[in-house]
Amino acid sequence: MEIIENEVYTQRETQAILKVSSSTVMRMIKKGLIRAAKVGRQYRIMGKELLRILSPELEDQVGKAYNRARKWVHEGMEDPAPIEEKKLAVMEEKMDSGPSRSAAKNRNSSKDKQL
């Protein structure tokens, strides 16, 4: 059976192509190994998903191309680690400088006693 990239396959057709049980197909969908769209109560799987599963070399090539493109896009951007460290430092400073909740609670209860 030839797999057509832009063809939409049912769960049963996918089961026949992969030569696995229906429960295995469902398990693969639920775990995210096969990306599928739910239409009503049924799942539909694109042919390119089946090709991706059956030819991991192709997926590796696509992944490498994606990583190269991602690296190219992010080359000129600032490293996010120092920004996160700054945010953390500011949050810690706010927590240290402000009154603690228990101190505020004690002040409120003492005010109630005075009234």
Helices and strands in order, then pairings?
Layout: E1 8-10, H1 11-18, H2 22-30, E2 37-39, E3 42-46, H3 47-54, H4 56-74, H5 80-97, H6 101-114
Antiparallel strand pairs: 1-3, 2-3
Q: Which features does this protein show?
A:
66% helix; 10% strand; 115 residues; single chain; Arc Repressor Mutant, subunit A; 3-stranded antiparallel sheet; 2 domains; mainly alpha
Describe this structure in words.
This protein is mostly helical. It folds into two domains: 1-54, Arc Repressor Mutant, subunit A; 56-96. Helices cover 66% and strands 10% of the residues. A three-stranded antiparallel beta sheet has the order 1-3-2. Strand 2 (37-39) and strand 3 (42-46) form a beta hairpin. The longest helix is centred in the middle third of the chain and has 19 residues, at 56-74.
